[in-house]
Amino acid sequence: MGSDLIHDQELWFTDGSIVLLAEKTLFRVYAGILSRASPIFRDMFAIGQVHNAEETYEGCPLVVMAGDNANDMRAFLEALHDPRSFQMNSPKPTDIPHIVSVLRVSTKYDAIHLRRRAIEALQTWYGDSLSAYQQGLEVLRSWSNTSPPVPSPIISRKDFFYNILVANVAIEASATVPLPAALLLCCVSAQDFRVPYDGVTNSDGILYELVPEAKRSIFIGRPVLENIALVRKSIRNFKSTQDCKSPGICGDFCRMVASKHETRGSLFLDPFFPFFRLNRKVISGQSCEACRSGWEASNKRETEILWRDLPLIFDLPPWDVLQSASNEDCHEVPTAGLPVPATAVLDLVM
Ligand SMILES: [Zn+2]
């Protein structure tokens, strides 16, 4: 073996029964634990090819893990050999790269329990319900470096690579449930369109780029979302209600809102932006109660419809198809990007 190989510091059990080599890192672990978690490892060890293998390392059978990244493999093996390393009851955003690594390898080797837990952990921030998405967004924002907090759900550029990691693994590992929220956050948290297109270079010097399928979804979905946001906030939709007590004042306020949103330039206009909640104070002083509650109710209704149609906007299958694809334990589920006509979107735009 080459002399530039290194033992992993943690995952090197002196009584381990198998040595795995990923890139330049050697892991000495237990074949029994791997067999129990993964039918692919079980078959690999059962047919005896490993124990008859010519290659050994310090007396242990050696398996070269072709195509596996050492960091991903470490996260996967650690989760199997030390369950404390993957207790994802209340994960932090900084755990996202670790979870993505576990998801990638557990999918490849069909370790279904670990795969399920990784998908569930990602749903902390990239959920399939509107309320989960909004809660996750709050958490991501509170972790971002934006100081003072800006009055829009923009996540700092530093943390943008989380969205890229999750969108990519959702496609590559057919873990499709977190995909729409990850794509949406790629639109929402990027100051301009170049970021999801070019990717970001993180503080570790690595360039994180979206896979082509994710870029395609954003290319299709981003302008639709912006158009919906513009229409919803424009004077055409945002007008005083039938029960209005002060048409003059409320009318002025609607015109002010419309003009404000039309001058936002190239920033992404987010149709999920909690406009009414954040501007309640402003609204209170400049409109009547009937209009306020009418606007809030219609905003809530429209936001729910928009969430229902979000996968279609990104040219993905609807939520129920994404959910069943994620729940499939086979790792050969068709990936996202299945062509489904986004007809429901027209109802929102028109
Ligand atoms: Zn009014």
UniProtKB/TrEMBL annotation:
<protein>
    <submittedName>
        <fullName>Uncharacterized protein</fullName>
    </submittedName>
</protein>
